[in-house]
Design a protein that fits this description.
Number of strands of chain A: 0
Largest sheet of chain C: none
CATH architecture of the largest domain in chain A: Orthogonal Bundle
CATH topology of the largest domain in chain A: MetI-like fold
CATH architecture of the largest domain in chain C: Orthogonal Bundle
Number of domains of chain A: 2
Helix content of chain C: over 70%
Chains: A mainly alpha (333), B alpha+beta (625), C mainly alpha (324)
Largest sheet of chain A: none
CATH class of the largest domain in chain C: Mainly Alpha
Oligomer: heterotrimer
CATH superfamily of the largest domain in chain C: MetI-like
Number of domains of chain C: 2
Number of strands of chain C: 0
Strand content of chain C: under 5%
Largest interface: A-C, 78 and 67 residues
Structural class of chain A: mainly alpha
Helix content of chain A: over 70%
Order of helices and strands of chain C: HHHHHHHHHHHHHHH
Number of helices of chain A: 12
């Protein structure tokens, strides 16, 4: 992999990010003459006089008193310094602080789901493919049809209803003190596990089945290749053939899709978090939406886009490392 | 082979993790269950808790409640007796030009004298004399003195230092003005012993120098309301050195000291913020034992040692938490749909208080020319509006929308329970539902006699149809209104309000009808009448009512210095408002709230209040103690 | 073209999976069209409200809602309309847009190709669910907005697949002959190359529709759809916020879930059957294997990623497409 390619890829990523930033800048400005209107606090019980003063001060504070181009430059400058903006919440917390608080909690859910999905899914899938036509194979097929058609949030609601409310196996809703009382003690960790159990369970099923299905197909297609027949003919044992040759090659597409899923790690669990009241990025974004907190919403968008770009970049580079057959830069074309 | 073992090990690890998770999975062990102390656990539904507690910052969510408990105002307004009760200030009175209190023999305000003294053109303001309670202290032990009062009002009046935090502490009626351009004090309106009170003619004795002060206010009765009951007093010793022109209140980049002051509030209220236990999900207030106001028998005024507010994102979660025993009470009211959940619960009490907020159908009766449409032209006709008012059957709405849990609002928009302001003559929509529909149809038959095949009236061949702007929660109400108005041949349809309805539709008069909540009381008529029926720019007067006589009467009401005259004028205004057929009341919903009775009892609810209120706190008794 | 479609429907019917798919889909379409006659009550009619929160009984087979007293069974039937319309319209629009873009990129090549691929890259990076939330915040909540956003973000995957197929077809003999004969670019694209990718389009329409139905349910669940319309996602949202979990009213939750399941299942079956018909080598619907995985976890993210993965995931990609 040539250095030139890596640099080109990175520059390309930066270019795309730039375009995304620009789009992000203009979105809250669509549809209103005075974009500052989106930033005014709710009027509440204020009188006209109060509200006029507040409008003027908001305009100055959020920098709407200069031209759009100047605002854009200020925005770029701000981003360069790592400042994603200031939320409209009381106390004006920085967006980056809010995000930093919530991201680990979202990762607890999504990373666990992905881990469980990958580990169990690949095992099951490989086994199913190896014993093609067996009961596991058919089970995986039926399961995949069902789990696709049943939306994950529906499963989550069902689990919440039965395992949470009716049978009380797990807490029906996340403990509101989960985040603040977390201190790395055994109790706290156990508390987190209990509360995370239902959301993870609801999404892990789909994840496992998905990875199982992909692995199965991938393994089948590789197993039919000529070089495997050769290996068998050479007299290598079943296990060696399976693990050393088949799986290694079958993993490539899995790795790619894993890489793709990484970008969904943070932004993807909005619905599940909402159902279980889990305090992650998803609920942060939904709350920002409900309170019209535009700086926070736009800040989160930039963060997610940046993260997705980074994930794609890393995946691309890794993939080229793993699969020498693939032409550099042509992997996803 | 080794891979198999690896797989088995991974599986075993995962099983261990699962077992860990299942340990003690009886649904979590929140502190509440085992708590034997006198801490009250209160559930709050919202999206986030404030991270700083500067009391002038926000009017949304739990912040005003917390602020009003940690900080204090000069006086507090008691709705039932319609008087001002002592808070920080022990006594207060209007004073005449010689400095004598304007009071009657039994200590009430002598409004006749007030009027004769100050209504003339020769006076610019009314001075009010206050005496602070000498036992009032800040939570760090410092005494509350007039310097804090001066500092607070001065800061609020100085926009350059207080930004729009000052605008939220509304001191417009205080005659203490700063020039917003130069930042210099233009007119002084707060007088203490050290700032020239005696020189100005306001007598303060030497021994009273720390407790007595005078405020000069606008010549309206309502001036005192916001000044004494809404402005929360700030500690000078915490803020004075920190706030400057470079570091004003509510800037987006406050200095560290200012941030520290926001997050560690020093207040003179009955409670102090427990900063250690407070987090983004929970706010803990501890009762101050050195609070200067006590109960009649000398014990603490409020019966809980600490209050723990816990944040929930969703009302369902909060109700569930209360059912499970993790909470004692909810801060918000619940919908009538949930009443069935508690019928079997022995330890949870359901409280129903008559509401004070009326939902009204607002008609756009006076749109500007560029917003005029055929439909809105129909609404400019007062007879047409009367027909609509007749067709609205509040009893029907209450039965269907609220399940019977509500009461009707008379057309004068003041409830009968509000004895000072209620005028029975303002109730001009009378008769049984059937009679009213007949009368409405009679009126409409003269205006738009033609009907189409569905029974809706035609105006020049087009069906008479209006769009009612509402939020998704108001869809049901609008659907039932549809049925009611169908009886008189008018069609209405639901239209989504969108995100910022005020700027998009309402302020510009770009709507047919909408739903609005109104509440009028003695304490707010000054502001509210103006906002709802007079002001034409960016106010609650969505339909742009512009009646010169009404405006004059409202102005007279606001400026008269005689309270009796004022209340009489309110009654008159109430009748005129009813005759405009502008804001048609639909219903007043009861306030439903729940509280547990296994740890503490003695919940009291007054009109419009939920179980968690200051009266309950004064009245609580604990079961285990 | 007509002969092809005759074959195509019959072949689909004969295929066991296709048959189940078609039967259920027809049933749903029937429900959607004749909802007014099939539903015992009109959920839009306020005068037909019953007592709130009733359990299933003979008069209300699925009970009534806690919040408004509407009959859940009727709402279930009316809900098919939104799902089917949003799913099918988006599927068709995506197919059009994707085909157009794929053809342009593949056949015209050069600058147009790079431009379109750059746009695809940008589309991929923007997180779609948050963007949808922001756009509905700004422009208002309606199904039109949702269809628009799905289309704008959904054509990327199909475009890529079409593009790789077009690249192969570009070099075939009859295309070269047409070029020599002096046919215009548009003529070649639409008369010669497009028929070669029709099977991909039809398959993609069916599968996209399935995916969109799930995604639309998710968006309606979050409250981003038209608040006056009755949709399954919204029913689930109302169930959750109305306290169905607190009261234990499982019927309110299961009913829309079954609705979503049936609609997605039927279209997926059709899509899979189509794929098996066109790609006999991959008997188990390999092309959409990753569609399954992600649809559950990250609805929109997944769909769009998946569409792209078709091209990247299979080393034997080119061979598959060529055989079709």
């Amino acid at each position: 992999m040539g250095k030139g390619y890596v640099i080109k890829r990175i520059l390309y990523t930066i270019f795309i990010f730039f375009i995304v930033i620009t789009l992000n800048f203009f979105i809250p400005r669509i549809g209103v003459e005075d974009p500052a209107e989106r930033y005014y606090p709710a009027q509440g019980n204020m009188t006209d006089i109060e509200y006029d003063i507040i409008k003027q001060l908001t305009r100055e504070q959020y920098g709407f008193d200069v031209s759009t181009f100047q605002q854009y430059l200020r925005y770029l400058n701000q981003l360069l310094h790592g400042d994603l903006g200031t939320s409209l919440q009381a106390g004006s917390p920085k967006v980056i602080d809010l995000i930093a608080e919530r991201v680990p909690w979202t990762l607890v859910l999504s990373a666990s789901t992905m881990l469980i999905g990958v580990v169990f899914g690949i095992l099951i899938g490989a086994y199913a493919a190896w014993r093609r036509g067996g009961w596991l194979d058919n089970a995986v097929l039926s399961a995949s049809t069902i789990t696709t058609a049943l939306p994950g949030f529906f499963l989550a609601l069902l689990f919440s209803l039965y395992m949470g409310f009716e049978w009380e196996w797990f807490p029906a809703y996340t403990d509101p003190n989960l985040v603040s009382s977390f201190d790395w003690s055994w109790e706290a960790i156990s508390n987190v596990l209990q509360n995370a159990a239902l959301p993870i369970l609801a999404t892990a099923i789909g994840s496992i089945v998905g990875y199982a299905q992909s692995t199965r197909n991938s393994v089948i297609s590789v197993a039919d290749e000529d070089f495997i027949t050769t290996a068998r003919a050479k007299g290598l044992s079943n296990n060696t053939v399976l693990y050393k040759h088949v799986l290694r090659n079958a993993m490539l597409p899995i790795v790619t899709s894993l890489g793709m899923s990484i970008s969904g790690l943070i932004g993807g669990s909005v619905v599940i978090e909402q159902i279980f009241n889990w305090n992650g990025m998803g609920t942060l974004f939904l709350n920002a939406n409900n309170t019209n907190d535009y700086p926070l919403m736009m800040g989160i968008m930039i963060f997610l886009s940046g993260f997705a770009l980074l994930a794609n970049l890393v995946t691309d580079l890794c993939y080229s490392l793993l699969d020498p057959r693939v032409k550099l830069g042509g992997a996803r074309r | 082979m080794s891979s198999r073992i690896v797989c088995k090990r991974i599986l075993a690890l995962m099983l261990c993790v699962c077992c860990l998770a299942l340990t003690g999975c009886s649904g979590g062990n929140y502190a509440r269950r085992t708590d034997n102390s006198r801490t009250l656990y209160i559930g709050v539904v919202g999206s986030s808790f404030p991270v700083s507690y500067m009391p002038w910052f926000s009017r949304d969510g739990i912040a005003p409640t917390i602020s009003s408990m940690v900080f204090s105002t000069l006086l507090s307004y008691d709705e039932e007796s319609a008087t001002y009760q002592p808070a920080l200030a022990k006594e207060w009175c209007y004073v005449d030009r010689e400095g004598n209190p304007i009071v009657t023999e039994d200590g009430q305000v002598d409004y006749d004298k007030l009027e004769s003294e100050y209504s003339g053109r020769d006076t610019q303001c009314i001075p009010i004399r206050f005496k602070l309670d000498e036992n009032a202290t800040w939570s760090d032990g410092t005494k509350v003195t007039v310097e804090d009062i001066y500092f607070t009002f001065d800061l609020a009046a100085n926009q350059k230092l207080s930004n729009h935090a000052g605008a939220l502490a509304w001191v417009n009626d205080l005659m203490h003005k700063y020039d917003s351009n130069t930042g210099k004090l233009r007119r002084q309106g707060i007088y203490t012993y050290d700032t020239g009170a005696n020189e100005k003619g306001y007598y303060i004795a030497e021994e009273d120098r720390d407790t007595v002060f005078y405020l000069e206010t606008n010549k309206v009765l309502g001036a005192i309301t916001s000044l004494v009951s809404t402005v929360l007093i700030l500690p000078k010793h915490q803020y004075a050195d920190i706030i400057s022109l470079d570091n004003p209140l509510y800037s987006t980049a406050p200095s560290d000291e200012l941030r520290h002051a926001y997050e560690n509030p020093i207040g003179c209220g009955a409670w102090v913020l427990d900063t250690e236990k407070t987090s983004g999900q929970e706010i803990v207030l501890r009762r101050r034992d050195d609070y200067h106001i006590t109960a009649e028998d000398g014990s603490a005024l409020y019966k809980a040692d600490a209050l723990s507010f816990i944040l929930y994102q969703d009302i369902n979660v909060a109700i569930y938490a209360l059912k499970k025993g993790h909470l004692d009470v909810l801060d918000s009211s619940i919908s009538a749909n949930y009443a069935g959940l508690f019928s079997d619960e022995k330890e949870i009490a359901l409280f129903s208080a008559p509401g004070t907020y009326a939902q009204c159908l607002v008609l756009n009766m006076n749109p500007t020319e560029d917003r005029m449409t055929e439909e809105r032209r129909m609404l400019t006709n007062p007879d047409f509006r009367r027909a609509i008012a007749l067709a609205v059957d509040q009893e029907d709405m209450i039965l269907n929308v609220l399940g019977g849990r509500g009461q009707a609002m008379p057309s004068g928009l003041i409830l009968p329970s509000n004895e000072d302001l209620y005028n029975p003559d303002a109730n001009i929509i009378t008769g049984t539902a059937k009679e009213r529909v007949e009368e409405a149809n009679a009126i409409l038959d003269t205006l738009y006699p033609e009907k189409d095949k569905d029974g809706y009236r035609l105006n020049g061949g087009k069906r008479v149809s209006f769009e009612v702007l509402g939020s998704p929660g108001e869809q049901e109400a609008i659907s039932f209104l549809q049925v009611l108005l169908q009886r008189v041949g008018i069609e209405i349809k639901y239209a989504a309000k969108g995100n910022s309805p005020e700027t998009t539709y309402l302020y510009g008069g770009n709507f047919d009808m909408t739903i609005q909540g109104v509440i009028f009381s003695a304490g707010n008529v000054d502001i509210m009448f103006n906002s709802h029926f007079v002001s034409l720019s960016r106010s609650s007067n969505y339909g742009r009512l512009n009646n010169k006589e009404l405006n004059q009467t409202i102005n007279k009401m606001r400026t008269t210095l005689n309270q009796n005259t004022k209340y009489d004028l309110v009654k008159e205004i109430s009748t005129v408002i009813a005759q405009q057929y502008y804001k048609l009341p639909l219903y007043v919903s009861d306030t439903l709230s729940i509280a547990r009775t296994d740890r503490c009892q003695g919940w009291v609810v007054s009109e419009g209040a939920t179980a968690f209120n200051m009266d309950s706190l004064e009245n609580l008794t604990w079961v285990n103690h | 073209m007509k002969k092809q479609s005759n074959n195509f429907f019959l072949r689909l019917w004969r295929h066991p999976k296709g048959r189940t798919g078609i039967i259920i889909a027809m049933l749903l379409v029937f429900c959607a069209v004749f909802a007014a006659y099939l539903a015992p009550y009109d959920p839009y009619d306020v005068t037909q409200r019953a007592e709130k929160g009733l359990s299933p009984s003979w008069s209300h087979p699925l009970g009534t809602t806690i919040t408004t007293g509407q009959d859940i069974f009727s709402m279930l039937i009316y809900g098919t309309r939104v799902s089917l319309i949003v799913g099918l319209v988006t599927g068709i629009c995506t197919a059009f847009l994707g085909a157009l873009m794929g053809l342009l990129a593949g056949y015209v090549g050069g600058f147009v190709d790079s431009l379109i691929m750059r746009i695809v890259d940008i589309m991929l990076v923007i997180p779609t669910l948050p963007l949808t939330i922001v756009l509905t915040n700004i422009f208002g909540k309606s199904y039109f907005m949702i269809i628009f956003i799905f289309t704008v973000f959904g054509w990327t995957g199909l475009a890529r697949v079409i593009r790789s197929q077009v690249l192969v077809l570009k070099n075939s003999n009859y295309v070269k002959a047409a070029e020599l004969a002096g046919a215009s670019r548009w003529h070649i694209m639409f008369r010669h190359i497009l028929p070669g990718v029709t099977h991909l389009l039809i398959m993609s329409t069916a599968l996209t529709s399935a995916g969109i139905m799930v995604a639309e349910a998710g968006l309606s669940f979050l409250g981003l759809g038209d608040p006056t319309a009755i949709s399954w996602g919204k029913m689930l949202a109302d169930a959750q916020s109305g306290g169905a979990l607190l009261f234990g009213h499982w019927w309110w939750i299961i009913a829309p879930g079954i609705g979503i399941f049936l609609s997605v299942f039927s279209f997926m079956r059709i899509g899979l059957a189509l794929e098996e018909m066109f790609n006999p080598r991959m008997k188990q619907g390999a092309g959409v294997r990753k569609l399954f995985k992600s649809l559950n976890n990250t609805y929109i993210q997944g769909i769009f990623d998946e569409m792209n993965e078709d091209a990247a995931g299979k080393p034997a990609d080119g061979k598959e497409a060529a055989k079709a």
